[in-house]
């Protein structure tokens, strides 16, 4: 069994064929997915999509590209989503984490201080509800590390980990997880491959980040949850472990991290 710990299967434009995508994932042994919200409406879409689907969970949050959405009204709405109150009382499944949130100095149109404020305010919500956080960091590691450290959050995954060895050590020494995408299959990525080899068995997960970041053999095409299997095979080869070991460890890690029902 494998879990796609970071999927955007609820992007309707990308996945009009989502039923077949789920079937293919199951055939590949990817029997659960965590769907990640990118902004308020998108989080709501993810929530609506998963409610009647036992193999899917959802995560609510505002990505640093959308920091303008961090208003008192939306923060209140985010809390209501988590509590399943008000407009969201029709749902039965709560989000399993807050995310994806973080800092992106590469592409976000928002200034660092605006992004940091949004990141901090959502970390407070995670703490308030004792939820883990799914963190997106790009070209902003030092500031993200400072905000995370100051916030006091303990349950953190650095999604699509793309940092260096010192940054990985920093995360693992705090009990934070790193999660690996199809990027580990790109031949030039030797630094990341070393990090995959060194990741502590209980501190890493696998994810597609689909529809983005397809593994090497599908590069340039739409990514989908079934491809977690190829990522797992590649990770197993790098670590010199059987595929079953990688599958069992990463599944156990995702179940523990998101506190999934089994
Ligand atoms: Zn994502």
Explain what the structure shows.
- With 262 residues, the protein is an alpha/beta fold.
- It has a single domain (2-258), classed as Metal-dependent hydrolases (TIM Barrel), CATH 3.20.20.140.
- The protein is 41% helix and 15% strand.
- The protein contains nine helices and eight strands.
- It has helices at residues 18-27, 40-50, 72-83, 112-128, 141-151, 165-173, 190-198, 228-239, 243-258, and strands spanning 2-7, 30-36, 56-59, 98-104, 133-138, 156-158, 177-180, 204-206.
- The strands form two sheets. It has a five-stranded parallel sheet. The protein has a three-stranded parallel sheet with strand order 1-2-3, with helices on both faces.
- Strand 7 (177-180), helix 7 (190-198) and strand 8 form a beta-alpha-beta unit.
- Helix 4 packs parallel to helix 5 and helix 8 (228-239) packs across helix 9 (243-258).
- It is globular, with a radius of gyration of 17 Å.
- The model has no long low-confidence stretch (mean pLDDT 97).
- Residues 6, 8, 36, 100, 209 line the site of zinc ion (ZN).
Quaternary organization: single chain
Total helical elements: 9
CATH class: Alpha Beta
Query: What name does CATH use for the topology?
Result: TIM Barrel
Integer-rounded radius of gyration: 17 Å
